UniProtKB/TrEMBL annotation:
It comes from Vibrio rhizosphaerae. Pfam families: SPOR (PF05036). PANTHER family: CELL DIVISION PROTEIN DEDD (PTHR38687:SF1), CELL DIVISION PROTEIN DEDD-RELATED (PTHR38687). PROSITE patterns: SPOR. This is SPOR domain-containing protein. SUPFAM superfamilies: Sporulation related repeat. Residues 99-174 form the SPOR domain. InterPro entries: Cell_div_SPOR-domain (IPR052521), SPOR-like_dom (IPR007730), SPOR-like_sf (IPR036680). Residues 64-85 are annotated as: Disordered.
Length: 179
């Protein structure tokens, strides 16, 4: 009896396997494949496209005059140029350039080895309304406040910063051309 039962069991397994494998293909019919539509970006624009044309306007002249400044004007005639041509050289006074270079003030509050602590201090000072920055120099991170053109304002801030941080900072001239 075992052989009859075994043969029926094997036959049933074969029929079920064929049904599982073949029937979905037969009943499904033609399979449709979904393809995603992709738009490609052209590497080079079409030459046939018209380009936009812009009209170039002449600059407008303003009738306002500039304030008087300490500028010296030298007139030199050039021997190679014609007799009518006059070469004009404009020279600014050296005191004006010095005023520009020393016109600002900064407070160097402290120099820290740990840049994370310096960044945290700067973030805290910025929350309090100070114009705080860091500057990397020789392995140290300097905490700098400013620049500002008012020396008296920076002196007041120096006293306030000493109360807040406990560090006695230095008031230095700010040189914008060589910070």
């Amino acid at each position: 009896m075992a052989s009859r039962f075994q043969s029926r069991l094997v036959g049933t397994v074969v029929l079920v396997a064929l049904g599982v494998i073949i029937l979905p293909d037969i009943l499904d019919g033609q399979k449709s494949h979904y393809k995603e539509e992709v738009a490609s970006i052209p590497l080079k624009p079409d030459v046939d496209q018209e380009t936009e044309q812009y009209q170039i306007l002449e600059p407008e002249t303003d009738q306002l005059s500039l304030p008087d400044s300490p500028v010296t004007v030298k007139e030199n005639t050039d021997e190679k140029a014609s007799d009518d041509a006059v070469s004009v050289q404009v020279q600014t006074s050296s005191s004006e350039a010095d005023d520009f270079q020393s016109s600002g003030w900064i407070i160097q509050l402290m120099a820290l080895k740990n840049s994370d602590n310096a960044q945290k201090l700067v973030a805290d000072l910025q929350k309090r309304g100070y114009q705080a920055h860091t500057k990397q120099e020789n392995g140290y991170t300097r905490v700098i406040i400013g620049p500002d053109v008012s020396k008296s304002k920076m002196e007041r801030q120096l006293a306030e910063l000493e109360k807040i941080t406990g560090a006695k900072g230095q008031l230095l001239k700010f040189k914008p051309l060589n910070p």
